[in-house]
Specification:
single chain
Length: 127
């Protein structure tokens, strides 16, 4: 029955009805164009977001590496400053004749007048 009724109904062909049909078609086209524009905009925003996030992450990794390298170099600098201080102290000591004489007697087994050198082995070295 429903199919018979649809066949029996005919459209009224007036200017108003045609204008409404054209308006519906135009509205459908505008919706379709709007949907396409929004989807294109969404894709563009997604790509832009991806590049921004990947750039941020890579810069964060680079920054972390640089901070770790800075810490390492600061530690090395502190060690080198300690070593420099020790070497400066040794320079001052090496300008002292008594220290040089003591060092020569200790390292090279030189003896002073009326001095006898005994070589006693270290217990730590034997173990």
């Amino acid at each position: 029955m429903g199919a018979e009724r649809q066949k029996a109904v005919s459209k009224i062909q007036t200017a108003y009805v045609q204008q409404q049909e054209y308006a519906e078609i135009a509205s459908a086209r505008r919706k379709k164009l709007l949907l396409r524009r929004l989807s294109l905009f969404f894709v563009f925003v997604c790509l832009l977001s991806y590049f921004m996030i990947s750039s941020y992450l890579s810069q964060t990794r680079i920054l972390e590496a640089k901070v770790a390298e800075k810490r390492k170099l600061n530690h090395q600098l502190a060690d080198l400053k300690k070593q420099e201080k020790i070497l400066k102290e040794n320079i001052v000591k090496l300008n002292d004749d008594d220290y040089i004489a003591k060092l020569a007697r200790k390292e090279y087994f030189f003896s002073d007048k009326n001095e006898i050198i005994f070589n006693i082995p270290d217990e730590k070295k034997e173990k």
